[in-house]
Amino acid sequence: MRFIDKKLANQPKELIAYKKTTKPTYANFQDKEILREALLKEQGFLCGYCMCRIENDSLKTKIEHYQEQCNFGEKTLNFDNMLAVCCGVLDNETKNPICDTKRGQLKPTEQSLQINPFDKSQMDKISFENDGRISVDNPTLQADLDEKLNLNHDILKTNRKKAIAEIQKITAQKFPSKILTKAFISEKVAYYNNFDENDKLKPFCQVYIYWLKQRESKAI
Questions:
Q1: Which residues contact 3 (CB under 8 A, 6 or more apart)?
Q2: Which 8-state DSSP code applies to residue 109?
């Protein structure tokens, strides 16, 4: 999970126009592909929860409402309440879903989240452990990560460990002494934070960034 910088300027004109029609509803909004593309570009084509790669494919990517539709019907057309998420199934494990799919299996009274990808102060407190776990020093937020979104699914932990191994290899080759420079860390953090020419971020980019920032205090 990483901070999503929501900007109403990214809201597609089709959604703006539709909200001005008589009795608009999310279910009847016809330009969901355009909406999904706008959300994907805003997020670097990463799932708003697990950070895996997603594309503009209705079978593989869903439009999620952070404040769930079953309890916040009045917000279903609010762009600042939307994010793009993955289909929620890893390696056909339909009985062990993640992200929005896991959340959707809960009772309506249990679906609300306290962990918020639109809240930078929260996202800055998230840690990625060497064993691949995502964690936060707050029991309520950790429960959301574990129980409502299942973000410590074994496959996600494995993918995060691979990201850590990759950045460790990169740094070990450049700095055999294991003492990084502040300039290198700054350069790499910027690289993983920046969208490429196709508006994409690297999958699990925040894992790389977290690992690098953990080494800032000892850098020269």
A1: 117, 118, 119, 120, 123, 124
A2: G
pTM over 0.85: yes
- 56: tokens are 């503009």
- Look at residue 183 and give its three-state secondary structure: helix
- Distance (Å) of CA 129 to CA 57, 84, 86, 135, 199: 31, 25, 23, 7, 28
Decide if 63 is inside a domain: yes
- Considering its fold, how many domains does the chain have in total? 1
Nearest in space to 4 (alpha carbons), one of 214, 207, 193: 193
CA distances from 99 to 1, 35, 42, 44, 216 (A): 10, 20, 18, 17, 31
Q: Is residue 1 part of a domain?
A: no
Domain ranges, residue 38: 8-218
Reported for 20-29, long-range contacts at CB under 8 A and 24+ positions apart, including other chains, are 24/77, 25/76, 25/77, 26/69, 26/76, 26/77, 29/77
What digits encode the pLDDT tens for the residues 21-80? 999 999 999 999 999 999 999 999 999 999 999 999 999 999 999 999 999 999 999 999
Q: What are phi and psi of 65, to 5 degrees?
A: -105, 115
**Does residue 171 fall inside a structural domain?**
yes
Q: How far apart are CA 71 and CA 112, in angstroms?
A: 8
Q: Could you tell me whether strands 134-135 and 127-128 are parallel, antiparallel, or unpaired per DSSP bridges?
A: antiparallel
Is the pLDDT at 177 greater than 90? The verdict is no
What are the angstrom distances between the C-alpha of 5 and each of 43, 72, 213?
Answer: 8, 22, 20
